TrEMBL record:
This is DUF2164 domain-containing protein. It comes from the Bacteria. Pfam families: DUF2164. InterPro entries: DUF2164 (IPR018680).
Length: 82
């Protein structure tokens, strides 16, 4: 798994998963079961979300680069040919 979580992050997410199951499915799941859900998400779903985030970041950077190019081009001065 490429996603590294701190112990605190993992504990928070596991508690969130347990709360989700309880609130939405009326199921009490153990910490172990919630960890298995988290492992599944990290291995199978997170890469898709990660790649979408990278794509979004790439788009933003490309737009910013384009703006910088335009601003630099506006600073250029014409050269008079004699």
């Amino acid at each position: 798994m490429f996603i590294k979580l701190t112990k605190e992050q993992q504990e928070t997410i596991i508690a969130d998963i347990q709360r989700f199951f309880y609130n939405n499915r009326d199921e009490d799941i153990t910490e172990f079961e919630a960890e298995r859900v988290l492992d599944f998400v990290k291995e199978n779903i997170a890469p898709h979300i990660y790649n979408a985030a990278i794509s979004d970041a790439k788009y933003v950077v490309e737009r910013q680069y384009s703006t910088i190019e335009d601003e630099l081009a506006a600073l250029e001065r014409p050269i008079k040919i004699k």
